[in-house]
Fold this protein.
Amino acid sequence: MSKFVDVASITQVIGCVYTNPAILDQTDKYTITDDDFPDKFHKITFGAIYNLYHLGASSITLKNILDFLAEHPKHEAVFKKEKGEEWLFEIAQNAMPNAFDYYYNRMKKMTLLRAFDNYGIDVSFLYDPDNILDTKKKQIQEEWLDNTSLADIANKLVERVDSIVATHVNHTFGEVYRPTEGIEELRERLKAHPDVGVPLYGPLINTVTRGARLRKLYLRSAPSGYGKTRTMIADTCNIGCDMIYDDMFGWIKNGTAEPVLYITTEQELEEVQTMMLAFLSGVDEDHILNNKYIGDEEDRVDEAVKILGRSGIYIIELPDFSLRDVENLIKQNIRENGVKYVFFDYIMSSLKILEEIAGRAGGVKLREDNILFMLSRRLKDIANEYGVFILSGTQLNGDWKEADTPDQNLLRGAKSIADSIDLGMHILPATQKDFENMETILAANTFDKPNVKLSIYKNRRGRYKGVYLWCKADLSTCRIRPMFATGWDYELIQMDDLQIQLEAPSAF
């Protein structure tokens, strides 16, 4: 049996539940699983109590338990061998319901430590039951364990795992190189293929991002209803389709269609389809939904259907998912469909993720910010490992309206998400205050009045960050087009539109 076991805590938990099984109804507060009982006798005894209560017993007696175990001879044998009747009588007498929370948390902490220990991860730096010589260290560890929450212990262990990964997988402390190692090959490669990806939708955006680059993770966040999903649809179609309707020139070539995977966690397939049709055709989505077209709009939508039919776009609905589900789906589409560009809408927690992570940690529930960080970290790892581009999104927290600095602190759930990304931007509404700050710029130029702004707060290896791209957004067609750029200080930035050359001419 593992050394990370507190028998006194387990005994108290079972004793309190035995005398007051209604504790089991408090599922929002207590989660007791098989993993909490490494000893078979304790597992069997608690299992009998648990099953009897959920079969309808409002109170549980020794006779109830004996009758239940009689139907399970192997379990009954273990119970009798351990003198279960005497043990139950004793723990019932000594149960301390007023101290249940303390013993429950102590038991769960041992479950967590045991789970990591079983995976071969050294946890003795936090708590070492074998330490019998250094009494001072033992006391410090005991006090730390009692005064530290499950989530904080989990964070410490996750940090230790991350450091191991960094050392042995990511090679944070890897080989030493001379600065000229492979440099000539690098120069030749950049001459032949500059470090740019396929174009995203809209002028100026590629100047900032250098396109959708493989092995990179981009994050585009927005308040609800400001275009997070629709801009992702636009980028999906811009990369995956070979033509798009232009108001001035009609149908124009849009480069070479690339295999693209679009994973939706909220929208159903039909919702995604109508948005794609609206973007490609330039027809208001409401006209498509209501079948009320103006002029040649219906013909344009018919053409958009054909374009989607020959596109390299694959759509997956994934309303509930685990980290493993996301990775497996991406791997499958890389293998079967040659996907290089992935759009994941969006970074959020789910029931399956909660269950997956809790299962890894012995039933311990992590905070939402831990889960979102782990998901973003996994997406970045997938981008690196499989050589794909990933763009995802998040919601913004409630502080975005009053924020003076529109950076990663606005991310809902966990600002640490930004640690994993290569490029981060927010879609925010253009406000009256913005117009007042840009009064001179708008008066002196022929710019249309913007209605949204893209705030670029992170741009790894990029020239532009701490900037706004001022945009004209038409969410009915999923088209958000940057027009000009300023710093966060509202000073105009002269920015050339980067034209990424593909095998076929690109619209952007």
User: Anything to note?
Assistant: Residues 1-111 form a domain with the DNAb Helicase; Chain A fold (CATH 1.10.860.10). DSSP finds 19 helices and twelve strands in the chain. The first helix runs from residue 7 to 19.
